[in-house]
Amino acid sequence: MKGLICVLSLTFSCLSFAQKNVFIEILPVVGSTPLQIGTNHIDATGTAFKLAHFDYYLSNLHVIHDGGQDLDLSDTVFLVESTNYVLYLGFLNVQNIEQINFGIGVPAAMNTSSSPTAVDITTWPLGHPLSFQDPSMYWGWSSGYMHMIIGGWADTDGNGDAASTESYFELHNLGDHNYAPVNLPVVQSNSYPDQIDIHVNCHVDQWLKGINLLTCDIQHGTTGLNELVMNNVGTYVVFDQSPNAGTITPTPNSGQIYYSADAWSLQLFWKDMVNAGKGELIDAAGRVVKSFVPEHSVGSTTFSELETGIYVFNMYDTHQELIRSIKIVQQ
After folding, report:
1. How far is 20 from 174, CA to CA, in rounded Å?
2. 16 or 100, which is more confident?
């Protein structure tokens, strides 16, 4: 594999007994509440805060399975976002996953700040995790990629609402020495005969522990609070599984839709679409670009040579009732 695009290009066809579609869902939470951008949450000190963005890189992934075998996916980099946190690992020859090992950030070998093997950001195709992002995850050739960025407002007046007129904070964290390794024993969910899900929580409040959001201000760097927040990944339990992780099962029509796009193509993915009957891509004028019948509850399809613009992808059940819909911006 040569990066995320290669991982995502694996198809869902030719199902066999030995292979499974493998997903890792890393749900961002504050306490036990799922994180929502623009919504008030409470940090470990009792301060209300509201996030404008929260994004991080996950890389150097190793899947330990079936009695300690190491499936090495270390040449893959994922960008995990507050609303885009499901990672598709591929159609893999695994039956039982015992542990996942990964790093938070862009590894030194791929980071332009120090590595002779790194490449200029402009050489990555649009849509690739190491290409340009909004908000930016890159601080220039000499500083390299930001491992994790988080920013928002803290409740200065103590009324429980972190308004946009109150203390603004940003932590945009760089530096090869701040790359944070994680080794996480896991229990898998056998969602379907051909699908394995690993459900993980990312505790944002633990990641911010020891950071005074009221006085943090704007921090872009490799030391001080930027170093502290990255060290928190190893100091506190930032990534874990809930006690019922292995028993989580999708309910009918609780599926998810997500996509990967570059200048040449658009790839759409779906999972847990138990009663899926039809998928439909619609352009901004309301015209149906493509319609198809999905063969399985998990799958993908690719659209090539799309014009730039806004599209909507709808998934319907077998009774033509809308299950899920997603807006897509093709650039």
Report:
1. 36
2. 100
